[in-house]
Amino acid sequence: TAQSKPSVRPAIHAPTGTELSCRGWHQEAALRMLMNNLDPDVAERPEDLIVYGGTGRAARNWACYDAIVATLKRLADDETLLIQSGKPVGVFRTHEAAPRVLIANSNLVPRWGNWDEFRDLEDRGLTMYGQMTAGSWIYIGSQGIVQGTYETFAEVARQHFGGTLKGTLTVTAGLGGMGGAQPLAVTMNDGHCIAVEVDPWRIQRRVETGYCDVRADSLDEALQLIDQADGPLSVGLLGNIADVMPALLERGLVPDIITDQTSAHDLRQGYIPTGYSLEAAAALRESDPKAYDDKVLDSMVTHVRAILDLQDKGAVCFDYGNNLRGQVKDFRNMPEAFDFPGFVPAYIRPLFCRGAGPFRWAALSGDPGDIRITDETILELFPEKAALHRWIEKAQEKIHFQGLPARICWLEYGERAKAGLAFNRLVREGKVKAPIVIGRDHLDTGSVASPNRETEAMADGSDAIADWPLLNAMLNTACGASWVSLHHGGGVGIGYSQHAGMVCVADGTELADERLERVLTADPGSGVMRHADAGYDEAVTTANERGVDLPMVNG
Ligand code: NAD
Fold it and tell me: Where's the Urocanase N-terminal domain (predicted)?
C-alpha cells in the first residue's frame, strides 16, 4: 500500500558538501532535494513519506523511494528518469541539456478526477498525492510560504489598513507546513495574530522554530496575551477553529482580518471536526469514513457561516487557498461561501501579471554562509526594490533554516533570469561552496490552473482552462530545466487543479548559463502570456515593455 514501510528507518538527511554520490550535479541535486523533503526538520510526517499539505508525499512508498535513490545514483548525464506518481518507472536516453527527471503526479482522466476514485487507486498502490512541491522535490519548509504570506498580508495592510497591520488582530487556523508561516508573516507586518490549531505538537513545533511566539490553551488566555503585548505578538491557540470562530461572534469580537489554512482541501484527512480529539477523529475516520466526512462538513459549515457573519460586521476576510469555500459550496450547497474572496484575485494577481512569483533556491553545500552570499547578490542586483530589501533583511533575522539552507523571494519576469545567471557565476567563481538549486512553488504566474484559487475569477472567464500548466511544463522541458513535474490536485485537492513545477541547477558551467537563462525567462514569461491572453492590461504592458512575443497581443 502507499504506506508500506519497514518498521524502523533512520532519519533522512540530504548529503552536503561537494562530494558527489551521483554521476552529475543535476542528478545529485534531485537526490539531495528528495532527501531534504523527507528530513525530519523539513517534513511534517517523514515516517509516512509525507512532506506537507495533508498527505503530500515525496515518493509512493519506501520501496519506490529506495529505487528512486538507487536510480538517481546510476543515472548518466544523457539519461532521463521518469516518475509516475512517486514511482520510478523508466530511464530513457535523452541528451545532456534535457531534464534528468520528469515527474507526473496524481493525474487522473478528468471524469475520474475526484477523491473517491483517487483514494481507491491510492489504496491499491497505483498513485500518490503529490501536493505541489512535495512530489516535485523542492519543498523548503515553512520559509517557502512565508514570503508569499508576508506579501499577501502586506497587500492586505496596503489595501485596508494604511500600509501596516500595527494594532490589528488576525484570526486564522492551521499551523501545519504552510499554515505555520501565518503568525510570523503577520508579526513581520507588525500585527497581532491568533492562529487556532487542534494539534499541540504543531503549535510546539512552530514556537520552537520561531514561527509563532507563544501558546495559549483558551481564547481568554490568547486575548489577554495580545492585550498585554507591547509589540506585535502571535499566539498559537490550542482549539478547534469551528468552535473559536463562533465564540468570537458570540462575544461580539470582530477580528480585523480572518483567513484559514487548515487542510480543508482534504475532507478525510485535513480538517478535524468539532467535538473530536485527534485520536477520536482518527478512530471514526477509520471505522466510518462517510460519517466522518459528514461531521467534517458540519464543522466547515459552522466555520464558514461565522466567517460570513464576521465579514458582515466589518472583518476583512479571504480564503487562503485551501478550498474551504469549495467544500461547503459543493457538498453542502452553500454557494454564498464565495461571498468572501480568494486571496489570489484579491491580492496576488497584479503580481502574476508582471511575471512575479515565488523564486526559491537552496545551497547544496549545506552551508548557511552560501545563502548569506546569495542574499547579498540579490540585494546588489535589485537596489531599487525596497520591499525586497526589507524582506531579505527580516528573513535573515527571523527565519530559521530547516534542512538545507534556502531562501525565497518573489521576482518578476526578467529578474529571475538575471538572478539565476548571477548565482551560476557565484558557483563558477567559487564564491559559494557548491552548486545552487533554483526552483519555485507550483503556485506561480504561468504554472497553474485552479479555479478556486490561482485562476479564480479570471478576467475572461478562463478559470478552468488547464492548457496553460501543460504548456508551461512542456516549455520548461524544452528549455532544459533539471527536473520538471506535472501534477493534479495540489493545494485545493483532487479534481480542482492542474499545475506544473520546475527546478534548475546552477552548477557553474556554461551549459548551466544557457539552460538557466532559457528556463528562468520562459517560465515566468508563460505567466505574462497567460495573463495577457486573459486581457489583463498590466500583463500586456509587461509583455510590450519587456519584449515577450505574443502573436495575438503584440505580434
Ligand atoms: P497541513 O496538513 O500540514 O496542516 C494543516 C493543519 O490544520 C494541521 O496542523 C491540523 O492539525 C490543523 N487543523 C485541522 N483541522 C483543524 C481545525 N478544525 N481547527 C484547527 N486546526 C485544524 O497543511 P499545510 O501544508 O499547512 O497547508 C494548509 C492548507 O493550505 C492546505 O489546504 C494547502 O493545500 C493550502 N495551501 C495554501 C497555500 C497558499 O499559498 N495559501 C500554499 C500551499 C498550500
Answer: 12-138
Nearest-angstrom CA–CA distance, 482 and 99 = 4
In short, whether 272's Cβ falls inside 6 Å of ligand 1 is yes
446 is in an annotated binding site: no
Percent helix, strand and coil across the chain, each to the nearest 5: 45, 15, 40
Q: Which atom of ligand 1 is nearest to the CA of 273?
A: 18
Model pTM score: 0.88
For residue 212, pLDDT over 70 is answered with yes
DSSP state of 112: G
185, 482, 484 from 476: Cα distances, Å: 31, 9, 7
What is the overall mean pLDDT for the chain?
Answer: 96
Instruction: Return the closest-CA partner of residue 131 out of 47, 58, 43.
Output: 58
pLDDT digits (tens, 9 = 90+) for 281-331: 999 999 999 999 999 999 999 999 999 999 999 999 999 999 999 999 999
- Give the position, in ligand 1's atom list, of the atom nearest the Cα of 262: 7
The response to whether 131 counts as a known ligand-binding position is: yes
Beta strands in 425-534 (DSSP E): 436-440, 448-449, 483-488, 498-506
Cell numbers 465579514 label which residue? 311
Phi then psi for 421, rounded to 5 degrees? Answer: -65, -40
The yes/no answer to whether this complex scores an ipTM above 0.95 is: yes
Work out the widest C-alpha separation in the chain, in whole angstroms: 66
Give catalytic status of residue 409 as yes or no: yes
Decide if domain 143-341 falls under CATH 3.40.50.10730: yes
Distance 54 CA to ligand 1 centre (A): 7
Query: Between the CA atoms of 226, 229, 234 and 236, what dihedral angle is there, to the nearest 10 degrees?
Result: -60
* Cα–Cα dist 125/383, whole Å: 51
Is ligand 1 within 6 A of the CB of residue 178? yes
Q: Residue 6: which pLDDT band, with cuts at 50, 70 and 90?
A: low
Grid cell in block for residue 479: 528549455
- Per-domain residue ranges for the chain? 143-341
Cβ of residue 527 lying under 6 Å from some atom of ligand 1: no
- Ligand 1: residue of 52, 262, 292 to mutate (most ligand atoms within 8 A of CB) is 262
User: In what side-by-side order are the strands of the sheet with 257-258?
Assistant: 214-216, 234-238, 192-197, 169-173, 257-258, 316-317
The mean-pLDDT minimum among 3-12, 70-79, 116-125 falls in 3-12
Catalytic residue, from 64, 193, 212, 409: name it. Answer: 409
The SS3 of residue 123 is helix
Look at residues 528, 521, 526 and name the one whose alpha carbon lies nearest to residue 544. Answer: 528
Binding residue per annotation — 371?
Answer: no
> Exposure string (b/e) for 212-223, b if CB count within 10 Å is 16 or more?
bbbbbeebeebb
- Residue holding cell 487548515? 262
Distance 236 CA to ligand 1 centre (A): 14
Pocket mutation for ligand 1, best pick of 178, 274, 442, 497 (most atoms within 8 Å of C-beta): 178
**Separation of 56 CA from ligand 1 center, angstroms?**
11
